[in-house]
């Protein structure tokens, strides 16, 4: 899984969010390291929705503009968790405290 | 304005809202918007299997065009026809190409196979027969309807089969266009690699006529090395772009 995808899914793990909220949450979670362009975000959202990892759960109109809220699906949550476990295990290889 | 390049079924209004909220410099948004719009319009979000299938159909289109042009080259060099079926061959190849453009695979296969049979009975053009053979094989690959509406494969096939009479500038422009288009959509590069692999059939016949090592190396580089490199590069891009 690519790093931006990981952070997009992570941004949705607590609650559904709209596009701009996903971008700000991704920047927050990655401590400013991942700042997605708007075009990149929507390419990723399109692909993730097609793969069944996220879904649109609500439509609304704010300031005259349509806005959709995206949420993780069961598969999305499982994929995010599997990636987190994989990275944690990989990190353990380096970070585990070695006996003296 | 960039957002209008996206297909109407995309959340264009929502994207405009995000762009307005972010107030990011335009130069940091434009490249991704342009790339995203072009990919959305060309089926850039398809999974890897569909991308390979599209490339196979585009390669078949290239071969049908190249197969139709190859006999013209032969006739220029004085090849004599055995019967008067060449017009029928061209009609079949043309109909097969149109069917590929429209996405009717089995119809395209039927006409490509007809072109192959007619080319075998009438023409002496080995490149045409090789092209129709591989096109027919590629069209046998099952899969959903995938119309090939990109003009680049046809232009590349024309340039490839027309060969030397074409000005160098035109050939160079097409190579540059292919390289630039690969940034958006690698499937045409993949198709070019698959189509060039049809040359293996002609190479198998040419190899008997080549006696020196240098000639064999050139033959191998052109008919094996180049297609292999193109398929390897485009295949890697396909795998990366299909990754979530």
From TrEMBL, chain A:
Gene3D superfamilies, alphabetized: Winged helix-like DNA-binding domain superfamily/Winged helix DNA-binding domain
Species classification: Bacteria, Bacillati, Actinomycetota, Actinomycetes, Micromonosporales
Name of the protein this chain belongs to: PadR family transcriptional regulator
Pfam family, one: PadR
Domain Transcription regulator PadR N-terminal: 8-81
Species this protein is from: Paractinoplanes deccanensis
PANTHER family the UniProt entry points to: PADR-FAMILY TRANSCRIPTIONAL REGULATOR
């Amino acid at each position: 899984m690519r790093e931006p995808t990981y952070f997009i899914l992570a941004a949705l793990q607590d609650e559904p969010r709209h596009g701009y909220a996903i971008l700000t949450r991704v920047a927050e979670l990655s401590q400013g390291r991942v700042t997605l362009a708007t075009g990149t975000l929507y390419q990723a959202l399109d692909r993730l929705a097609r793969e069944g990892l996220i879904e649109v759960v609500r439509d609304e109109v704010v300031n005259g503009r349509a806005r959709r809220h995206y949420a993780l699906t069961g598969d999305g949550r499982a994929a995010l968790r599997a990636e987190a476990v994989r990275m944690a295990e990989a990190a353990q290889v380096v970070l585990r405290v070695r006996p003296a | 304005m960039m957002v209008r390049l996206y297909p109407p079924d995309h959340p264009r209004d929502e994207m405009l809202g995000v762009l307005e909220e972010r107030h990011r410099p335009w130069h940091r948004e434009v490249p991704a918007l342009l790339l995203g719009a072009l990919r959305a319009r060309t089926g850039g979000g398809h999974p890897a299997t569909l991308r390979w299938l599209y490339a196979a159909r585009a390669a078949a289109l290239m071969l049908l065009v190249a197969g139709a042009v190859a006999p013209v080259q032969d006739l220029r060099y004085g090849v004599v026809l055995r019967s008067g079926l060449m017009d029928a061959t061209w009609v079949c190849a043309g109909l097969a190409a149109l069917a590929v453009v429209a996405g009717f695979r089995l119809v395209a296969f039927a006409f490509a196979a007809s072109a192959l049979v007619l080319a075998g009975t009438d023409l002496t053009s080995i490149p045409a027969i090789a092209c129709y053979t591989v096109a027919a094989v590629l069209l046998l690959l099952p899969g959903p309807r995938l119309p090939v509406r990109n003009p680049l494969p046809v232009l590349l096939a024309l340039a490839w089969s027309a060969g030397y009479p074409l000005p160098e500038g035109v050939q160079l422009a097409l190579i540059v266009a292919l390289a630039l288009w690969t940034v958006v959509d690698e499937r045409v590069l993949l198709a070019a690699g698959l189509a060039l692999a049809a040359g293996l059939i002609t190479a198998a016949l040419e190899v008997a006529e080549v006696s020196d090592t240098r000639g064999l190396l050139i033959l191998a580089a052109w008919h094996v090395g180049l297609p292999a490199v193109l398929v390897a590069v485009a295949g890697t891009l396909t795998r990366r772009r299909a990754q979530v």
